[in-house]
Structure formats: structure tokens, C-alpha cells
Predict the 3D structure of the following.
Amino acid sequence: MVYIADVFIYLFSISDRLIQTTEDRIGSVYKKVMLKQFTDGSFRSEIKPAPWMGYIGPTIKGETGDVLYIHFRNLASRPYGLHPHNVQYFKDSEGSLYMDGTSGRDKLDDAVPPGQTYTYRWFMQNTFAPTKDDDNCIPVGYHPHIRSNKDIDTGLVGILLICKPGTLNPDNSRKDVDREFVLYADTVNETNSWLIDQSLNLCLNPQRCRQLFNQKNGAFITDTLMYSINGYIYGNLPDFPVYDGEKVAFYAMGLNLGVHVFGVQGQSFTFKRKRTHAVVFGIAWFEGFYMTARNPGRWMIFCKVNYHFNHGMAAFVNVMPRPGVLPPAIIRRTRRYFIAVEEIVWEYRPFGRVLARVGKGSTERSRIEERFFTSDGAVGGRFVKAVFIEYTDGSFQRRKKRCKDEKHLGILGPPVRVEVGEMLEIILLNKASRPYSFNPFGVAFTKDNEGAFYKNDRYSNEVSGAAAMPGKQCRYIFTVPWDYGPTKEDPQCVTETYQSFVDYARDQYSGLVGPLLICKPGTLNARGRQRGVNKEFFLMLMNWFEQDSWYFNQSISLAMLNGKMVDQENDMLRDVNTLRAINGRVFGNIGGFDMCVGDQVSWHVLGFGERFDYQNPVFEGNNVQYDGRMIDHVSVLPGTSQTVYMTPDNPGKWLLHAGQLETQTDGMVTRYNVDTCNRPLPVSVPVFEKTVIRRIYIAAVDVIWDYAPRKINIVTMGDLRDPNTPGNLYVRNTDMFIGTQYKKTVYREFYDASFSTQVQRTEKDNHLGILGPFIKAAVGDVIEVVFKNMASFDNSIYLKNLPLDNEMSKHLRNGVKPGDVKIYRWLVPERSGPGRNEPNCVGYTYNSPVYPHKDIATGLIGPLLICKRGVLDVYGNRMDKTNREFALAFVIFNEANSHYFDENVRERAPNRTNLDDSIFQQSNNKFSINGFIFSNIPNLEMIEGDTIAWYTFSFGNFNGIHSNHFHGQTFIKTSASSFRDDVVGVVPGSYETVEMFADNPGTWFVHCHLGLHMSAGMMDTYTILPRNHRGPYRVGPQMLRRARIGRALRRRIVY
């Protein structure tokens, strides 16, 4: 039974910064609204939560087949409701306010008035249940959804647990774990809370704080952003208590702003059946992860994104000793490394020139490249750094020479390798001028061997951590128990990292990072290298914020700049002193990525850095095997790492670059070389009796595109043309603002090579909007694109994840001149198709690669579908069980990067002279789905019982990470395994395919769950029509009947 009400409380948190209440700052105490659990329907006797719960609402649990009855009483001062993820509900229990065509009783659940009670019914149907590959319980969130970002920032959040039958005890605890904890990490914007007006009264000078708030003062708002765990910052959350040897389940979620990467010092997790030391979640990515607690002590649990950690996103897991628990039996052998920390002068561009770039070279690009090296305030390409250097023995007299295969390592420390059941001994000599340490992730160690420095006692100012002082040595002992090693679902070596952790972020930016491989027993040969692998490469894409390095002042002196003239708080100077590098080199100045056709290559991709380091390295020409998929990219975030394998079959010199458009433009690019080595080329395409040639005529066409033909905010129900309606900025149309209509260039299909008649879109593909047409093929087919450039600038069409030769790649990047026609052909090999367990068709993308950041901003993107053999007929129609296909592109179009921006300003905002005005710049960022904002996509419609394929992808920059949430339905995401969800996340340059069984009729919300994106228009609806619907897909005023609900196994009732 669950009794929930929302009530007022004060939130207390104490920190070293952002916590002091002053004349012009609120501090750390805010008025909140919480969800509370009660014993019965009188709502008088509260069930007290555990101290570590903070302000999170109660954890609601159920098993497949259950029906949850949630009696919700609103004891607060404004309307609220409850909206769950990942369970089935009718329209009268969705708890979400938007224009969905319902009325009457179906609207009562959306916003419960103060003092009223409402009962929600949530069904844990089989079609919404955990899959066989899911954990026994999957966590999802629940929260109000009137204005969800404001509701969440006000404090109304909770976790719902959906379990497989037989998992729960009668008291609702789990049978299969010893401890359960909820971890809610979010960037809480207190100025966005419904109660900000009351919180402003907590300032010492409320009038001054209110003035700053009304002025939207940037510094004031920044200081009200709370990077919190369960509502606390800087370790003030009461500890998560656990005993040594216990199996612990963590249920993690973020909801509103930011992606988080959490780890626990000295501990290791299983996550989605794989081994890791860090788990990614956030913006409605709900995750369960598990650990077996080892080594008594108080261990820090923290977000590994530098900015989040520095702003307080840390707490503690207290592992308490338990009599009779013995440490795991290990130590088959000891691997010993002698490593020194040394200060050097590092060259980001040692060759002094650009050796690789993404797109066509131009004067404009040269200016972008040179601003890092010649502009005022830029230190240039030479910086003082500290790096890890390996030595041959404990005398530290002779460096261990890096061999040819290690040339690519660049600034990285030496690769450290260890097998399960072994001990790792590190002898660290500090030759630098300040203290440093050695802290690995993913291995076990005692508190005496921990290389991380932090205040480990709530009531003491002492700091724990083992470090080497300048000129001194420090010996570290680490172990790899069996429950820290790769699982059967993992590759033979799991990629982890190590770093100095005296200061988590500054030590990174100073250069002290390196790779660690944790391998299955018997994987490493006598030389310590992986068996069965010909080449082993380590890859780190990172934004180096040199102003956060310990040595920035020395670097200023090295560059002979006047330190007094370098304003270190100036954002522009911070930008020019941020180097976007691969292994510490920019614009192709890192080499050594050399391999032969047919080699077995392991790539170990490392993630470090800042909140914008959502890296997505792209391998052109070949692809990699990752989690049962064959794709051209792999995603890593700060604190995460991945192992992927490549068997190159396409010789040539290929680009390896960031997926983010801005960072690839700014230098995060290099080349890798595939040589034939006198070997025969492997046969990558099955031989069929008849090759199907799928020919399509596509042109780049200029259009006047309208982002919002209908200007209604479907959440607030307001007219967007009204200046007081949220979202008005994005449709504002005056002589100073462009509005929603822009000249753009898009891909469009034509009937033949005359390019005289454009193919008119139908109900099947109207939803594509600004996107080009579906390009479809099956494994073994040949795709032939007859392409005409009908625009006014050079462009072309590049199909991702398909092989091409160097000559074709060069032509694609040089582009097709306006008015010219070019024929491109791609053969579809098996390694570009769906993996063995993947859906029959998977979605990729295509775009113009000439000036990617401009071409994409102008509109040149589209969906590519590759299917298994025999799935498509000769017309490209699917012959399997899939009834409908939809592509959704979550893209923030920055119109200032468009080829036509100057023309659009001149024609539609003629009196605009200040293009640097921040409000004007924001108005030209269109937070779109398929080029539409605020629910303008046509024909997102299907019929009950349909099987739907959704192809979701993203292009963009650091803010192009999106979280696509479907109301009313769930989907299955399948790669090596299958998992149930209702949110699919994408980062710039990535693509995902999910399958949905539409069994819940209604008009349902689909939106990016990141609050800022949704409020700016990244939202729409899709409609499931009832099974008895006849005729074409049309939404009418008919009443949508209830979905069929199976017989409940158990009713969890609230009176």
C-alpha cells in the first residue's frame, strides 16, 4: 500500500561554496515540496523514510501483472499530479497536462487542486514488463507533469520499481539483494522552482535578491544551481550504510538537466550484465546497478563529470566490517609498474600545421584553426604539463621506451594491464613540483592504498588519501577479485582508467591520465599484451581546459605573454585556451594508428573531462563491433570507457574524428591508416545470384522552411505569438527577430534524372519534415544515389557506416558544384547491416560532409535504413511484421551557422544590427524534432496492434544530447541483449533503433526530457488509433477506447 502527499519542508545542505546566505545570495536553504508516504487514507501518520533518501519521494514497487492504486492527496499550495514512466495507464491516470484531445474525467489526473485527493491506476502489463535480459527489477521515475521541469525543480520526484514475478518479499523488499538505495542526481535550478518567491525571502536582503532574480542576473542564477544527490551537496547526504560482502542495488535517475556518471571509490559494479566502475544516467535515463561491497571504510560516491564534482555532487558509501566475512581469495601473480610523474612542455601541434580536418579546407576554416595559436590571449600550442612516464625498474634511471605500436599514445600514461585474480603494484616517483597520486578505477584497494584525496570524516577536517610528495615515492597495492572482473557478456579486457586524484579535475587538465585494462584470466601473453589481438589502440577525445591546469601561469610565461593582460575569467580567452584534442594532439598531429587489412584491432576509448565532453568518436571508412552492433562510432562520457573491436576490410587513410560538429571543426580529428600489407582483401559482401540496385534521385533544394506553422504551446495551451506565453522567443517575428520561417537547403527525392518533378510525400513519410527521404537497402544491395545540387553552395551526400574508397571520400568532401549532377554508389556489406540480435532493419543517417557544421545547420540531413537480406521488396517496402517506420531527428538547428543566415537576417529582420545580442542568438536556436517545434509534426499515427520501428538520431554540438521520452508506451531496444524502456538517449552523431508494440490507444506526448529543450519546443504528440479504425491514418474526434488489460495477479491498493 502506498500513501503519498506533497508537503512543505526546508532543505538544508552545507558546502564549501554556494551555501552561505548573504545580502545577495540565498545560500543552501530553499523552500521545497516533497512527496511523503503515509500509513492510511487519513494522511496523518507519515512513514518515515531512511535518512539517505533526502527529499526523494517513496519508492513504489510492484511485479509484472500487478495493478498499483496510488491515492494522492495534494497538501501543497498549487496543483500537482503524478506521472509514471514505463507502466501502462489510461488517459485518466497519465498525470500529464498537454493538449491530447481528452476532456472531463480524463483531465482530472493531470493537475490535482490543493486539498483534493485523486486515485491513479498504473498497470504492470506483460507488454510493459522487464525483458528476459533485464535485471529482476527495473527502476523508473515518477513526478508531476504539469510543467515538468518546474515541478521537478520544486522537489517532486520518486522512483518506481517494476519487478519480475516472485522477486519481492511480502514486505516489498527484494529477495535477491541485501540492500537497496535510490540515487537521484540532478542539476536543480532553484530559480525555476514554483517556490522561488518564498526562497528569495531567505536572503539576508530579500529585496536585493528579488531584484537580481528579476534582472535574470547570470551570476545569481548560477549560484542557485544545486548539483545535488538526493537534495544534498558536498557530502552532506547521510551515508549509504552497507556491510562488507553484501549485495547492493542502486536505483539511479536524473530528470531535468545534465547527464551524470557515477562511481564509488574502490568498488565495482555490474550494469546491464556487464562490468564497469561507472554508470551513466540522467535526463530520464533510469538505471539499476549492483555491487558487492568490499573493503570496510567510508568511500566516496560521486559524479565523475568534473564540473559536477567540483560543484558538490558527491556523497559517501559506508562499508562496515562484518564478522566472519573473509576477503576474496586471489593473488595468482603480481604485476609491477614503475611510473614517474614528470613536468614537460607539451606540444598540441608538434608538426606546426594542420594534417587533418573534417570537411573541405577553406580560408574560414583556417581562421578557426589559427585562433587557438595566434589570437590575443591564446597561449598557443605549447603548454607546461605533468605526465606519467614508465621506467624499467625501481632505480628510475632508464625510461621504458615506447615502441612503434605505442606512438599513438601521445599524452596518455603507460597502459597498465592486469588479469582477474592478480595483484597490481605501482611504484610512483614524483619528479614534479607539487603532490600527485595514482588512483585507478575498477580495481579493489584498502583505504591505505587509495589515491583520492577527500575529507573522509564528517566531523574532522583531516583529508585521507595516499600521495607522493615532490621528490618522494609512494607504493600502491591493488587487487582484482573475481567480482571485479569482466562478465561473460564483456570483451576479454574491460577498459578502465587511472589518474592522479589529489585534485580530481586539475590533475586531469594538467595531463595525469592513463588507460587500465582489466582482463579475463589467460588473456595476456608473456609480454603483457592481449592474445588474439594484432593491434591495440588507446583513444582519448577531450577538451583540455588549460586554464584549469596547475601550470597555466607557467604556460603564460612560456608563451611570453604578459600575465596581467590575460584575464583568466574572460570566457573568450578561456575558449581559445581550450584545446580539442585526440590523445593530446590537434588537427591530425597524432599518428601511429596503423594497421593491416584483416587485423584484429582492439580500440580502448577513454572518457575524461567536462560536462560537455560527451564524446562520440567516428571511424570513417570502416566500423567497429560494439555491444552486438556494427557501427561507425562509440559513445563515451567523462569517467566512462569502452572496448570495441575492428576488423578493417577497407584500405586507405581514413578520418577519425569527434561526433560533435564544433569540436571536430576545432581540431578533434586525426587519421588512421589501413594498409593491404600484401594481403588479399576479405570478402565482406555475401555473393547472391542477383544484386539489387536501389537507385534514388535526390537533390539539394532551397526552401522556405517554417519551424512552427501552428503556433500553440501544447503544454501551457497558450498562443506562442503572445509575448507572455512560454516559448514566444522562438517564434518572435518582428523587424528585429526572424520568427519561424528561414531559407534552408534540404534533400528531396525526384522521379528521374531530369529532376523536373519532385516526389510528393504521403502519410508514410510526411513526418520526416525537414529530413531527406528514407534511403533503404538490404545487405548485398547496391545503393545508387543520383545527386543534383540545386542550391547555391557546394554540397554532397554522405551515407554513414557504409564503405567507400579514398577517392570517393575526397569527392564527397569537395562537394558538387551548384547545378551539377554526380552519381554515387555504395555496396552494402554484411558488416554494415544489423547484428545477429538486432532488429531486421536499423537506422543510420546521411548528411553533407563538405562544411558539416554549416551544411547540417542549413538542413542537409536524412535517414538511412539498412536491413537484413530478404526483408525489403523491390520497392523498398518491408515484408516482415513491422507495420510503420518513423525517423525522429532531435536537432538544435543553430541558424547562425546556416549558409543563409545573413540572407535570413536581411530579409526577415531588416532592422537587426547587433547580431551578438544574446536574446537574438537564442531565438535562432531551434529545438526541433524533424525541423518542427511545439508539436507540428504531421502523421505520427498508427493503429493499435501495429509494430513500430523508431529511428532516433541527433546532430549538433555539446548541447545536442537528447532524451526522447514516449508517454503511454514502452519499447524494446535490442543489440546484444534486449531491454525495456520508454526513453531513448542520443548524443551528437549517434543513432538508435527501437521497436514498439502499439497496444495503448490514445494521443500521447513525445518529447526531449531535458527541461530546457522541452520548454523551448522539442515536443510533439503521436496517436495510436483503436484497432477497429478504418480508412487512412487520420486523427478524428472519436473516443479512443481503453486498452485491453490482462487479469491482475495482485492488486496493490491504497484506501
Observations:
- The chain is about 10% helix and 35% strand.
